[in-house]
Amino acid sequence: MPHATAPELREFAERVLGAAGLAPAHAASAAAGLVAANLRGVDSHGVLRLTQYVASIEGGEIELDPDVRVVFRRGSTALVDAGGGYGFAPAQLAMDTAIELAREHAIGFVGVRGSHHFGMGASYVLRAAEAGLIGWLTTTSQPVVVPTGSAVPVVGNNPIAYAIPRQAPHPPILLDMALSEVAFGKIRLAAAEGRPIPLGWGFDAQGRPTTDASAALAAEALAPTGGHKGSGLAIVGEVLAGVLTGSPFGLASHAHAHRSGGVGHLLTAIDPAVFVTREEFEAGVEELVTQLKSATRAEGVSELLLPGEIERRTEEARRAGGIPVSDELTTKLAALAARLGVEPPAWA
Amino acid sequence: MPHATAPELREFAERVLGAAGLAPAHAASAAAGLVAANLRGVDSHGVLRLTQYVASIEGGEIELDPDVRVVFRRGSTALVDAGGGYGFAPAQLAMDTAIELAREHAIGFVGVRGSHHFGMGASYVLRAAEAGLIGWLTTTSQPVVVPTGSAVPVVGNNPIAYAIPRQAPHPPILLDMALSEVAFGKIRLAAAEGRPIPLGWGFDAQGRPTTDASAALAAEALAPTGGHKGSGLAIVGEVLAGVLTGSPFGLASHAHAHRSGGVGHLLTAIDPAVFVTREEFEAGVEELVTQLKSATRAEGVSELLLPGEIERRTEEARRAGGIPVSDELTTKLAALAARLGVEPPAWA
């Protein structure tokens, strides 16, 4: 499999998005966001998305040169308007604003309205953790999750992410998860390989639980994680990231409605020293980590890993050895580049 | 089955807790909290707990007359010290403080340290919703959840609860859930009836997934909901409600360590008008509710229900027709009353 360096991949993505019409700064922030996901091994949110992004841009779903700005700051809160473009720059601005607010007020609580896909949620909560703060976010997404009792999708898989800072030199504990039982990527892969999926992953067009990967894929109907629990959390996510921020929600979200500004986000930064000293917080987290990592392991488990630890190791490996890009994806990206008249992938 | 009125049940619980040693105000707040759970049909958190509570009190795990106080208020944040008693009064004080802070600053973020069991989380987020605010909370609990990869419990099932206020006269959307796949109550019931449990609910003492209800019960080992997702959320819960608030966490939590002050909580109130007007928020929530309730229903489903709607209906029915208390539980409670020298249950 070909390997690309992160800069090669980022420059390629930036050229493609720029040629599709995104203003340079936005092409750069989106490209960097996609490659950040590839680096962590979250390839579903990496340059694989370029085809879809170009289609969204060409479909008029994305503002090309949006005015991303802080609408207001008030106490611990602020609102960012994404101007109908992609969510990368707005979510960065929102978390950076939340960090400033948390430094002053112990907590920063920032909404983003009128946004779009922001890539991998981990990117933004990591900014908080790198600043020594706890980061939390939630976002709406296109409505692909079937709430408990329904036969059709109504809510998004509304990813949530948390980053917990640790004493140097330890990387943060990082949880980044969607509220569907599995990501579409897993169902897409099973369909491509003609394999059935387990009951409990998705539904067919009639809203029946299905083992037919193609049927679930065609219906775009995912099961919530943990049944009614994930369903309830996804509904709450529509309210927090959608209704509360003044963004579309539910069936009006995102690409489903083929409109710009169809996504909302909510980002929070919390000072670990809000109730205890930073030293006490850090010592507590290390004690918890010790408990988690030294617990008796289940049969066949060689090491206990913290949330985000696999991704961190993948990032170290990929920074050193490059990012694997399948021949199939490389061919697709080369075709996209050719159509847009930009230089072909450097790693091909 | 005998039925008790809510006041009968509350007065009985108050007498029992008072006779066990709790100071009158704390006996009253705990009794009211337990019966609030019975009213909503959350009987696992109702007067069923009295036997366990009395054992905890007699075991010296609970401060009898704790000094529950706000340690400080600073901007949008405050810290409550529970003084080592039960969590009912401290969690109420914390949410009421969060409500005041949210009225002034749009968000109120309040930690509770040195607390204990607070009953049903719904009670506290409902206070926020009744004040027109969004309520959110999380709490530590005794370590009964086996994190992904482990063979033994390390973290709590760390319940989380959200309440979303709606336009009058609609009751709030209310999500109150633990991060275990199922509650112990379900496993206890299966064990009592000699039924197996599905794989994925719990583990045996060797950390192997088990269908043996008694084995899971003996190991006190629950599976996290949604596998690594619930596991990750439970770890985050230990940090937010435990480490951050200066309370015990992980293996040091709660009854496991038979110490007072073994539980921490974190409560938040959010003004729905922080980013949009209240009218816009309310209209958005109603539109989302319409989408959820008018979606095509799955086969065999007669009505689509919002989170918390069943519990609300149960409460209406039980306020009108009384709270069913099984003969078995009534007998147990009568024995407890006799031992403590208080009047027997009025409904027996």
- The oligomeric state of the chains shown is homodimer
Report the helical percentage of chain A: 40-55%
Question: What is the count of β-strands of chain A?
Answer: 13
Mean pLDDT of chain A: 95
Cα shape of chain A: globular
Identify the CATH homologous superfamily of the largest domain in chain A. Answer: Malate/L-lactate/L-sulpholactate dehydrogenase, NADPH binding domain
Looking at the structure, the CATH topology of the largest domain in chain A is: Ribosomal Protein S8, Chain: A, domain 1
Summing up helix and strand content along with how strands pair, one would put the structural category of chain A as alpha+beta
Residues in β-strands, percent of chain A: 15-25%
Distance between the termini of chain A: 10 Å
Describe the model:
The structure is a homodimer of 348-residue chains. The first copy, chain A, folds into two domains: 89 residues, Malate/L-lactate/L-sulpholactate dehydrogenase, four-helix barrel (Hypothetical Oxidoreductase Yiak, Chain: A, domain 1), CATH 1.10.1530.10; 159 residues, Malate/L-lactate/L-sulpholactate dehydrogenase, NADPH binding domain (Ribosomal Protein S8, Chain: A, domain 1), CATH 3.30.1370.60. The first copy, chain A, contains eleven helices and 13 strands. A seven-stranded mixed sheet of chain A has the order 2-3-4-12-5-8-9, sandwiched between helices. In chain A, strands 1-13 form a two-stranded antiparallel ribbon. In chain A, strands 6-7 form a two-stranded antiparallel sheet. In chain A, α1 runs antiparallel to α2 and α1 runs parallel beside α3. The model of chain A has no long low-confidence stretch (mean pLDDT 95). Chains A and B meet through β4, β9, α8 and α9 of A and β4, β9, α8 and α9 of B.
